[in-house]
Structure formats: C-alpha cells, structure tokens
Amino acid sequence: MLHDLELIQVGKTYPDGTVAVSDFDLKVEKGEFVAFLGPSGCGKSTTLRMIAGFEDITNGEILIKGQNVSAMPPEQRPTSMIFQNYALFPHMTVRQNVAFGLDLKKMPTWEKDDKVDRILDMFDLNDFADRRADKLSGGQRQRIALARGLVVEPEILLLDEPLGALDANLRRIIQNELKLLQRELGITFIFVTHAQSEALGLSDRVVVMSNGVVEQVSPPKELYRRPVSRFVADFIGSNTMIAGRSVGAGQIDTPLGLLSGQGAGDLAVIPAEAFRITPAGTPGEIRLDGTLTGKSLVGSVGHLRVRLADNREISVETHAATPGAQALTPGQPITLGVDPAAVTLIQS
Ligand SMILES: Nc1ncnc2c1ncn2[C@@H]1O[C@H](COP(=O)(O)OP(=O)(O)OP(=O)(O)O)[C@@H](O)[C@H]1O
Q1: Given the CA of residue 43, which atom of ligand 1 is nearest to it?
Q2: Which range (69-78, 163-172, 227-236, 243-252) has the least confidence?
C-alpha cells in the first residue's frame, strides 16, 4: 500500500554538529491529520522543513506517494508550508499573495484567476481581495496564508505552529475551521505544535518527540491510556508513577505494595482519572491508602489531593456525584482503588 508520506530513518545533523533529528520513521496515510508534538528544540520544525525540502536531510529517505523526494527542491514537491508568522508579502494585496504560488508555476492567467477566485470564496476573503496584506487582522492573515498554501493543490499541507500568533479565542475558532477544512478537502495535514491541547484535539495521530527522536506515534487517546515511555507519561496528561521491581508478568513490587498492569517494566503509570474512592474495595482492584489533603469540586468533577503512604502528594479526579465525595474532608484517611487494566507498566 502506497503511503502519502513515508520517512525512513531520517536524520539531520546541522553543520555545527547539532544532531536535531535521528532515525525518524513515520508512515502517513492519505487524508490523515498528524501532529508533531514536543518541547522546544526537540526537532519538530527541522523535520517539517526536511519534508518541505527547505532543509537537506543527512540520513535516510523521504517518500511522497512512493516517490523518493529526498533530493528534490521544495517547489517541485507536492507540499505547501504554512508558517507561524504567515510569511505574507505585506505590500502585496490579498489576491497577489494567494496567487504567488501559481505565479511560480507559470500557469495561464485564466486558470490562475479561476483558482484564486475559488479559494478566496472558500475562505471568505472576497471582500478583502484587493486590500494590502498588512492592513488585515491576525485571523484574516491566517486565512490568507492557508488559502495561499492550498491554492496550489498540494498533496500534503505542512503547518508550522500556524496558530501560535493568535489569541486564545481566535485560536479555538481557527482550530475548528482547520479541522473541518481538512476533512472536507481530504488533504494530508502535518501540524507542528508545542501546545498539547491543540495536538490532541485536532489530530488523528500524534508523534511525540524529545531530543530529536520519536518517543511514540499514537492516536491521542492512546497517549493517555498507554504511554510507552517515561517521557510520554510525564509529558502527556497527569499521571502518577510508582517505581518498583518486576516480580513476574505484569506485576511489580513497590513500597506501596504489589501493583499489576498492562505491559512490561518496573514503573507503573496510573492516569489521574483511573483512581476511584473505594471504601470497601472491589476484588481484583489495586488499593492504595492515603490521607486527603485537599479537595475542590468544579462542576461535576471533584479534584482531590491525596498524600500516599510514601509521602508523595498526588492529584485524583473523581465524579462529584460519587457516593462519599461530598462528605470527604481534608485530613481524613482515604483508600483509592485502581483497576489494573488502567495501569501501564513501562521501563523506568
Ligand atoms: N540552522 C541550525 N543550525 C544549528 N542548529 C540548529 C539550526 N536550526 C535548529 N537547530 C537546532 O536543532 C534542534 C531542533 O530545532 P527545531 O527548530 O527543529 O526544534 P523545534 O522542536 O521545532 O523547537 P521549537 O518548538 O522551539 O520551534 C535544536 O537544538 C536547535 O537549536
């Protein structure tokens, strides 16, 4: 099966010796929305620029629809890139900006005008078509940048923190638009961000990166449910991690007692929402004793702070309607229950 995009062992070492990306493997299906997520400097933008062709690769291969594009200049690749600062030409009109990519392709004027008209229409930019790009709001500029990227009908749209310059409200609105647009066009989107909620909310799959390597490639829910490394467990969601010693398949011995879970390793990862308040306890459940140190109820969710027997304080989320949740008072002993199926064991 032909993938829209395939990265095989891709690596980048900058001339000064900085290793920005190593052994990056990824296969992306047509129409997928994939986010690159990770802390500043982990190599997200470098990888995106290598896909676009703005940066040479030092190792590996990049294939688009099965074709090796590793040595192809950017303008010949079937990709478009959208930048955080939009990179519009301030003195050009909206129409000229949008037409720019088609001008490079030396397309006949009638065909160009037709494509530009259609895309301006789609992005609701008709009323501004003849206005200079620097006389527009952030949201409008963002739309022009998208229109300019899409008018050339790329196979893959590469977006480098495209919403980073927008305020929170506008950001949410454009996030929704982006998602709808992607579904409608069926184009593959590769989206770089260091905003977790954005990556998890928008994409079909997330590539979590740290220090130039891929830590995990999963649908957003899986990152919460089944982190594969300590880095991911630390970075995504709110997990309690309990270290121990492996004592057989799916079980570790810890200072808080025996814990079982899915997977293999010496570190148990428990998501905040996996804890339950269990006065009696259910057979098969992991039980952890502690003391309630704080509680707040926000709407239907109760946020509890619990000090465990090893003195660490953890956050627990519970449904406010849980029997007993209202009556809990800080200072009192509490027993937490966890279904072993919700626990993941990884290597520390
Ligand atoms: N031109 C360059 N020359 C040398 N090192 C570079 C160059 N560009 C980036 N780097 C380094 O490569 C690493 C990866 O940078 P990159 O910009 O890809 O990270 P990023 O994950 O996109 O970060 P951010 O979220 O801050 O944009 C960093 O250590 C960075 O300092």
Answers
A1: 18
A2: 163-172
Q: Which fold has domain 5-225?
A: Rossmann fold (3.40.50)
Residues 6+ apart with CB under 8 A from 198: 35, 163, 171, 175, 191
CA of 79 to the centre of ligand 1 (A): 21
Residue nearest ligand 1's atom 25 by CA: 40
More confident residue, 209 or 95: 209
The answer to whether 86 and 141 have CB atoms below 8 angstroms apart is: yes
- The pLDDT tens digits for 126-179 are 888 898 888 888 888 888 888 888 888 899 999 998 887 777 887 888 888 888
Cα angle for residues 39, 44, 50 (degrees, 5° grid): 165
Ligand 1 mean position to 46 CA, how many Å? Answer: 6
CATH 2.40.50.140 location in the chain: 238-346
Nearest CA to ligand 1 atom 29: 41
CA distance 180 to 188: 13
Query: Which residues approach ligand 1 with their CB closer than 6 A?
Result: 14, 16, 18, 20, 38, 40-46, 194
**Strand ranges (E), 86-194:** 156-160, 188-193
| Residue 323 confidence (pLDDT) above 70 | no
Q: Does the model's ipTM exceed the 0.95 cut?
A: yes
Residue of 19, 21, 45 with the most ligand 1 atoms within 8 Å of its CB, for mutation? 45
**Which of 19, 42, 190, 214 for mutating ligand 1's site (highest number of atoms within 8 Å of CB)?**
42
Report how far ligand 1's centroid is from the alpha carbon of 41 (Å): 5
Which of 6-20, 264-278, 294-308 has the highest mean predicted lDDT (pLDDT)?
Answer: 6-20
Q: Which residues in the chain are classed under CATH 3.40.50.300?
A: 5-225
As a CATH number, domain 238-346 is 2.40.50.140
Burial class, 277, CB count within 10 angstroms (exposed 0-12 / middle 13-18 / buried 19+): buried
Please give the model's pTM, rounded to 2 decimal places.
0.89
